[in-house]
Amino acid sequence: MKHRHMITFSRIIRTGAVNFVRNAWLAIAAMAVMVVTLTIVLFSVITNATFTNTIDNITTKIDISVYLKDGITTTQSDKLVNELKQLPNVAGVRYLTKEMALQEYKQQNAGNQSLLAAISETDNPLPATIKVKPRDLNKVQSIEAFLTKPANAALQTPESPSYNGDRKAAIDKIAHATSILRKAGVIAVLLFTLISVLIIFNTIQMAIFNRRDELTIMRLLGASTWYIRGPFVVESIIYGILSAIISVLFVHALFVAASSTLQASSLGLLDINYAARYFSAHFWMLLTVQLGLGILIGAASSIVATRRYLKFKTVK
Amino acid sequence: MILLDRVTKTYNRNMPPALDRISLHVEPKEFVIVVGQSGAGKTTLLRLLTREEKPTSGKIIVGGVDYDKLRDRDIPLLRRRIGVVFQDFKLLPNRTVFENVAFALEIVGMGNREIRHTVPKVLDIVNLRGKEKNMPMELSGGERQRVAIARAIVRQPKILIADEPTGNLDPKHAWDVINVLEKINRYGTTVLLTTHNQEIVNKLKRRVVTIQHGKIASDRAKAEYRL
């Protein structure tokens, strides 16, 4: 019995492969559609990753400066730094003494000789500073609440913390925009995936519709459901595998061509260099996902599409 | 071998039934010819036997299998025990003659060596040796029908159902097909044949069941064609 199952299984695989070759034109047409849609999905994933990277670059440049009054003790400042580190929304804290703050100010304004001259002649006017990097820009209020507590506010200069006023509004705007962009990216990927699933499903369904007579004949001769369906599933899985490989290679070729011909490294917000790096760094992962998608859609749609021709009459 | 007890099949409630309380009993190794005008219900009768349709009422037992107790997943097993020849051949268009006949054996899980051994023998019986590698499109109507017969008998079924197998053939080829059916019957297979062909019925001198308007009008042994 086991031997018989093996024979049947190998026949299903072989018939699927033979049908793939015998129906070459249908196979090419179906695969062309699959390649195009899988490529679009791949592009949307890469674009989304690239935008996310751009957004991350912007947000990491934003921090909150806490200016400490002159004359507070290191015990007091250490305590404040440690308490800030404990806050859930704080990604990092950097403490700058008055001297370090001056150094940094000088570096930032290295081109401006008169400004530097003015500063060095007087006493160091810069306060000791704590730079706080928030984890999530949308939740800076929790940090703000902590800093404005009377006990903490007493340690700070009147200007502190420094995201107050105009800069606060800017941070809010960026925070809002990035969260929308992130959501839009995920939605775009899901939407393109859904559309490809529908198109591929339809293509395979039409390919099987063309051969519905074959299915009913096999049914009449007493072939079991999986003996009939198996080769169609195998054939669709072959479509899926080849289409996934072709789409990944196509995108790879496109990046190679783009890097050699395009002078600019980015198109607006789209950082092509990063996209190419992302693609080659995640090559195997992307290929696996594409293969999984192609195999899954191919198998599922051929199972669904054959079902209606394999049903037995239940009407009396 | 075949038992129908007051079998009725209604396709549409607003129309008279296609079969109206038909009762029929066929013994093992019998050769029965079913005649009747188009639309009389011959094809419906055969489609009930292959379980392509379900009867609206009545009982069907074929080869000991009670169709009321037949589960869907056992229908393929039932069909493997019945050989069927269709008027329109129903060959698989993308497969060679050999592969079409072999298909009937593949689905029951027979090994390749046994298939290579069995198929040529059956092609001998239907006089199709040398056509193994041809596609159905390259064959004449008579040849295609003989491929279909080879496919139906290769599993050595106890019952062979032939629905107007000569309907699309010229007289010479029609007789080739009938001769094969007689040969199979002599080997012990029960044959149920529907036909329009008066000459064939008269020469065969077998049991003839006449169906009219969904009812059995007559059932006579060694009979001639009469409507």
Attribute tags:
heterodimer; A: 316 residues; mainly alpha; Alpha-Beta Plaits; two-stranded antiparallel sheet; 12 helices; 73% helix; elongated; B: 227 residues; alpha/beta; Rossmann fold; 2 domains; six-stranded mixed beta sheet; four-stranded antiparallel beta sheet; 7 helices
Poorly predicted runs of chain B are: none
Named CATH architecture of the largest domain in chain B: 3-Layer(aba) Sandwich
Name the CATH superfamily assignment of the largest domain in chain B.
P-loop containing nucleotide triphosphate hydrolases
Give a count of the beta strands of chain A, DSSP E runs of length 2 or more.
5
Sequence of strands across the biggest β-sheet of chain A = 1-3-2
What's the structural domain tally of chain B?
Answer: 2
CATH level-1 class of the largest domain in chain B:
Alpha Beta
Strand content of chain A: 5-15%
Task: Give helix and strand order of chain B, one letter per element, not per position.
Answer: EEEHEEHEHHHEHEHEE
Radius of gyration of chain B: 17 Å
User: If helices are DSSP runs of H or I spanning 4 or more residues, what is the number of helices of chain B?
Assistant: 7
Strand content of chain B: 15-25%
What features would you describe in this structure?
With 316 residues, chain A is mainly alpha-helical. Chain A contains 12 helices and 5 strands. In chain A, strands 1-3-2 form a 3-stranded antiparallel β-sheet. Chain A has a two-stranded antiparallel ribbon with strand order 4-5. In chain A, helix 2 crosses helix 11 (272-281) and helix 8 (166-209) packs across helix 12 (283-310). Chain B has 2 domains: 1-81 and 157-227, Rossmann fold (3-Layer(aba) Sandwich), CATH 3.40.50.300; 93-156, no CATH class. In chain B, the strands form 2 sheets. A 6-stranded mixed β-sheet of chain B has the order 6-7-8-3-9-10, sandwiched between helices. Chain B has a 4-stranded antiparallel β-sheet with strand order 2-1-4-5, with helices on one face. In chain B, strand 4 and strand 5 (65-66) form a beta hairpin. In chain B, helix 3 crosses helix 4 (112-125) and helix 4 packs across helix 5 (141-153). The A-B interface holds A 3-5, 7-8, 11, 19, 22-23, 213-214, 217-225, 227, 312-316 and B 50-57, 72-73, 75-81, 84, 86, 90-94, 103-104, 106-112, 151.
